[in-house]
Amino acid sequence: MSSSVFGSTSPAAIRSMALVSLLALGLAACTDGNASTEAKPEAAARAVVTETVTYGPRNRERSFVGTVRPRIESDLGFRVAGKIAERLVQQGERVTRGQPLARLDAADLTLQREQAEAELTAAQVNLNSSLAQDKRTQDLRVAGWATQATLDTQLARSADARGRLDRARRALDLADNQLAYAALVADADGVVTATLAEPGQVVAAGTPVIRLARSGEREAVVAIPEALIEHVRTGQPTVSLWSNAGKTYRATLREFAASADPATRTFQARFTIQDADDGVVIGMTATVAVGEPASARVARLPISALYSEGRGPSVFVVDAATGRLTLKPVTVAGYDGREVLIAEGVAEGDKVVALGVHKLDESQRVRVVASR
Fold first, then answer.
1. Span 48-58+296-371: which CATH code?
2. I need a surface site. Which of 174, 183, 213, 321 has the fewest CB within 10 A?
3. pTM above the 0.90 mark?
4. Measured at the alpha carbon of residue 121, what is the angle toward residues 120 and 124, in degrees to the nearest 5?
5. Domain layout of the chain by residue ranges
């Protein structure tokens, strides 16, 4: 078939076709040569967002609002029942040990004491009479005019009289005490924080009448959420007052509630304020800040900064001057929400790629478009 085609074509046409083919091959060779001599364009630097490495306490300082309270605060009441005749102190007043705070109407108590005194007098007279009878009965027994049984009976009567006298003395002492209890006195130096009863009110024994806060240690009382219990127990607390926020007091955790408040589900903690001065007044609002011990320091980075290919966690560190990347292995101390806690592996101030790390490799150049 080919021979038939060329056989029907003239020699001039064949020469023209060959010339066209040679020209096409030459143009193709020139095009390839020019393409091979041109340099490939350099890839553009990838834009990245970085995070600056900063080491600090593993747990951030947490603050809790509370109130200043005394370490010991007691509700004082009368030890006997009666009608309050007068109240001698007001709320907020400073008192000293032994100072009267309130008094009862002592009329009935005075009558009881007088009755006990009369009983004592009668018991003493009865004993004196019985002792005299002992002497006479003994004389009659010696003379033979009384039997031994009569003497024993008289001696028993004298012993009973002695017992009656002892009971009368105890009754008088008790009546004296009851009369003394008509006056409510302070059992320590302190401040009256509340008055719970008024003159004219009839109270039972033990009913709270005066609330007394003892002088001495002051404490900050706060409510702690369940999630922060361990942080509060192991942290380093300090206390500041809203009235003087510029001054900070050292504090120690003295008491932590064993069970949660049924309404708020929080735990009450009491922090003793060290070196509390006159500026620490009961009832003031205080802020308790609890920080982590200085030994536990970590760097916080977003979890998206971690890079891993099965050889452990790493991060990309950027050289801001050249845009080069360095993959550095790191030690992870833990996680906190969306943050990873880095114990070691990167230095303070390093710029770490925060997003898109799985699309990078160390051979790439990058440019920082945002830094935090």
1. 2.40.420.20
2. 321
3. no
4. 85
5. 48-58+296-371, 62-71+216-291, 107-181
